[in-house]
Amino acid sequence: xxxxxxxxxxxxxxxxxxxxxxxxxxxxxxxxxxxxxxxxxxxxxxxxxxxxxxxxxxxxxxxxxxxxxxxxxxxxxxxxxxxxxxxxxxxxxxxxxxxxxxxxxxxxxxxxxxxxxxxxxxxxxxxxxxxxxxxxxxxxxxxxxxxxxxxxxxxxxxxxxxxxxxxxxxxxxxxxxxxxxxxxxxxxxxxxxxxxxxxxxxxxxxxxxxxxxxxxxxxxxxxxxxxxxxxxxxxxxxxxxxxxxxxxxxxxxxxxxxxxxxxxxxxxxxxxxxxxxxxxxxxxxxxxxxxxxxxxxxxxxxxxxxxxxxxxxxxxxxxxxxxxxxxxxxxxxxxxxxxxxxxxxxxxxxxxxxxxxxxxxxxxxxxxxxxxxxxxxxxxxxxxxxxxxxxxxxxxxxxxxxxxxxxxxxxxxxxxxxxxxxxxxxxxxxxxxxxxxxxxxxxxxxxxxxxxxxxxxxxxxxxxxxxxxxxxxxxxxxxxxxxxxxxx
Length: 488
Ligand SMILES: Cc1cc2nc3c(=O)[nH]c(=O)nc-3n(C[C@H](O)[C@H](O)[C@H](O)COP(=O)(O)OP(=O)(O)OC[C@H]3O[C@@H](n4cnc5c(N)ncnc54)[C@H](O)[C@@H]3O)c2cc1C
Prior knowledge:
two-stranded antiparallel sheet, Butyryl-CoA Dehydrogenase, subunit A, domain 2, alpha+beta, Butyryl-Coa Dehydrogenase, subunit A, domain 1, 15 helices, binds flavin-adenine dinucleotide, Butyryl-CoA Dehydrogenase, subunit A, domain 3
């Protein structure tokens, strides 16, 4: 029987499958072929793509239908996001406006705030941005210095926000600032606010088609009704949006991984050396076995967490406090899928590039872009180091593991818990769908040395049973499919 605890991607059927197909078609037909123009920031192209996605209902999938969204589950929204993430620059633009910009409003907004701001975002008519980071406060987000001074029936905001995705195109900025320099709070700041300036674009190594810029606020006045939630409770808005954001970033990171496996498989089948196609070499097959297994592990855990999150929301009755508790309930698992999926993405795109040989190192082939774009996944929505500390801290607080003094031990303990969760998700799925069992074996093999290392860091015992999967056959089967082992 399917329950949230053993939900697998194969359970997206019927209308859900049709919606996923719509997202995938848009991604493959409208976005992927324009990768070059997107990277060159062709004027008007990105906002147009967002508008077109909105016209298909794709910009507010899990936003309530009363506010212009489709009112679908977070899990379905995440699967659709994966399909819309085959191109990294589009993915981050879309992900911020359809996700983190709307989550805070949906969870904490008053009816009037939701009615004012959500419909245009959910329909892709407006673009949102999320402003937490500052030049001197990244990981240590609560040390932000942007101030909100109560004045004239509203607030006057002053400070600099750094790395703001969508800054160039955003119509509304969700800004974190401290009231009187003390009470961390969240504010909705329209683009045309006097005193708000979007600075020049950052010159980035990847995601060149996305917009990332500083936003400076200089006595930028907004009315009191633009305060989201309560003064001093902005951390609830920021961090609960981030919990869901991390879950969604996991989906955003396996989208490019899916694409990398597809294009590398195509290349390996066509490229000949020593009179044979690359696809026939054992070491190339092994790479595909590992790529498929990492993808499988991430995918199995992400959509299981998504089903659990939806289950938590179904129980709350939609009150602000209930929403906060639901977004919080699986915060540990959200961090786990963020860390595992972004690291799986890195390994997959790296090996995919290797399959291309020297051609992978040129801009003539799409894999170089995928490789560059993937690097930031381990940095934003909380770096993977910060997420590891968060996992360990939370597990210790819940009494699920000891409190370790040293960061190295905390990270190792977080890794053990994370790998267990990923393996459990993969095992549950492969038990339901036995043809996936070989991938579970490869995944167990990949994670075994990492678990031994983590165990030895915290001086536990390192006994692991090693399966002996037939990696050549599994890799060959992946090549045959030309895609990750998803669906059956
Ligand atoms: C392309 C891009 C888009 C972004 N978009 C947004 C956005 O839309 N909105 C937004 O608010 N922010 C955004 N960010 C910012 C992003 O969230 C931050 O870069 C991230 O949180 C890390 O902060 P930092 O860059 O200041 O690094 P730092 O916090 O300075 O960290 C540097 C290194 O030190 C490590 N480190 C820090 N503290 C600790 C510790 N206690 N223990 C161990 N290691 C530690 C980190 O893991 C990292 O490896 C974006 C960043 C990029 C690159």
